[in-house]
Amino acid sequence: MLLLLSFLTGLSNFQVGDFTSEPGTWNLEPGTRNLEPNRPSAVRTRLVLVLSTFFFFSSVPAAAEQNSKVREVIAAAIEAMGGKKYLEVKNAHSRGRYFFFDRRGRKGFARFWDWTVFEPIKSRWQLGEGKRQQVHIHNLEIEKGWTLEGKDSVEEIPEEEIEEFKKDVKRDVNVILRQRVDEEGMGLFYHGPDDIAGAGEYEAVEFLDTTNTSVVIYFDLQSHLPSQLETHIVNKLGIRQQQRVEWYNWHTIQGVHTPLRTDIYVDEKISQQVFVEEIAYNIDIPATYFLEPKPEK
């Protein structure tokens, strides 16, 4: 199960000084990627497919073949991640280390705790503890959210930020593979190893919804696991940016194949990293974790 990362988009405004660095824990070579950075865009291949529809009679079997191949890739990925065990995951609780970077590449660090329910999406993401903690709660069942600063400062998340969170959720790999494949109006496009720069290690599926939002997920040809996701986000200044999410260090937890490291890039620069140290699935999570927190007096 891949950690739901939708809440991380809203954390990009944190300052590096908000949390302390932890000497001796940094073990990443910045810029490490599992795909070549100058690979051709999947959109280019899709454009060729769209243009080919002018040749109606030849395009129909091609479209059917595309759909069949896409379904095959998605089914193999779900099976690789645990099959029925993966699909039966209802919630998850994890903890670990969270690193984030400013535009100059300086890093900040915080311990994190995460509680996530997948249907409907409910997320509680906590950085730090005690007086310095920051807790972000999103509950899409009631379409509300709150932030808790320290132990006594609670604010409701504005409606427009909840709407942005909902958009981010739709770009999440778990939500896409488990819920959105058969969504009405969803376009599915296959890109083989010849369409992707590198040594022919990956294939990809592009998901294009009715809002013209594109998400491309790359899959390892050997393991069939998702290796990377590419999409575009809009920051708080209204600037459109490329976002890439990469997954590493896979382990089987309760029958579910799980990446314990996630790297996030924005416009080819490292933005955030998540290192999971412990994770458990289908546990008892109090319903109050996703409601308005009560400040301590």
Provide an overview of this structure.
- The chain has 297 residues and is α+β, with helices and mostly antiparallel strands.
- The protein has a domain at 6-21 and 59-180 and 248-290: outer membrane lipoprotein receptor (LolB), chain A (Clam), CATH 2.50.20.
- The chain is built from five helices and 13 strands.
- It has helices at 42-51, 56-80, 84-87, 159-170, 173-180; strands spanning 91-101, 107-118, 121-127, 134-139, 144-149, 153-156, 187-191, 202-208, 214-220, 226-234, 240-253, 256-266, 269-281.
- The longest helix has 25 residues, at 56-80.
- Mean pLDDT is 84; it is low at 12-58.
In short:
With 297 residues, this protein is α+β, with helices and mostly antiparallel strands. 20% of the residues lie in helices and 38% in strands.
Strand content bin? 35-45%
Along the chain, the helix and strand elements come as HHHEEEEEEHHEEEEEEE
The biggest beta sheet is recorded as:
13 strands, antiparallel
Unreliably modeled segments = 12-58
Helical content (DSSP H or I, runs of 4+):
10-25%
How are the elements arranged and paired?
Elements: H1 42-51, H2 56-80, H3 84-87, E1 91-101, E2 107-118, E3 121-127, E4 134-139, E5 144-149, E6 153-156, H4 159-170, H5 173-180, E7 187-191, E8 202-208, E9 214-220, E10 226-234, E11 240-253, E12 256-266, E13 269-281
Antiparallel strand pairs: 1-2, 1-13, 2-3, 3-4, 4-5, 5-6, 7-8, 8-9, 9-10, 10-11, 11-12, 12-13
